[in-house]
Amino acid sequence: MSAAGLIELRSITKTFGGVHAVDGVSLDLAAGEVLGLLGHNGAGKSTLIKILSGVFPPDAGEILINGAPTQVRSTRHAKSLGIETIYQSLALSENLDITANLFLGRELANPLGFMSEEAMESAARGVLGRMKLRLPPLTTPVASLSGGQRQAVAIARAIHFDARVLIMDEPTAALGPEETAKVGDLIRELSSQGIGIILVSHDVHDVFRLAHRLAVMKNGRMVGIVPTAAVDQDEVLSMIIAGTAPRLAGAA
Questions:
Q1: Cα–Cα distance between 58 and 69 in angstroms, integer?
Q2: Which of 26, 28, 71, 88 is most exposed, with minimal Cβ within 10 Å?
Q3: Contact residues for 250 (Cβ-Cβ < 8 A; gap 6+)
Q4: Going edge to edge, which strands form the sheet with 196-201?
């Protein structure tokens, strides 16, 4: 892995009741890289990201963060290591406004120990500005936001708390073309700021235009990891369906 590498997984294995959900999988992620993680339902993608995000411990294998072997002990520990995961459900409270959702469970307090709405609103404006986001007023309830705006709030929450690795699970699954494009622009902006992004999807078309590399899993195994520019969508679909890696130009 390059000197700019953030994460490296080596031969990660996880078994549930005799089923190898993840079977000897290795991959790495560099700063500013968007890595597309593809495969059908049951391929092992969700289990792999839950291992990286501290939900499950691996049965075997090694996780390196910034080159150092690390045991990710819990989701809280993962967050402290700069690994944030945004699941498809987004985990937003619809009855609360944008600011309250950005700080949900991690509210800012004033010197007297009381929650500081002013400090949180100021920080919210700062992170939204950093991400070049235009959202409705911060007092707007999340229930009234569009799907793309909700996705942006969830991403902003992760970025404010110093995420260096952002795992995004099907971020555009329920969005229309216009909002999908906006989320794509946001992913590019975060990549330009040096944040490493793992973009999880079962839809090759969803990630092909965003990812620098594509990692394909099938039946718990890694089929292959390829530069996006070196393959076409048909080759990647063949990896997903048949489980065979393409022969890249220049390969021995």
A1: 13
A2: 71
A3: none
A4: 83-86, 165-169, 196-201, 34-38, 213-218, 221-227
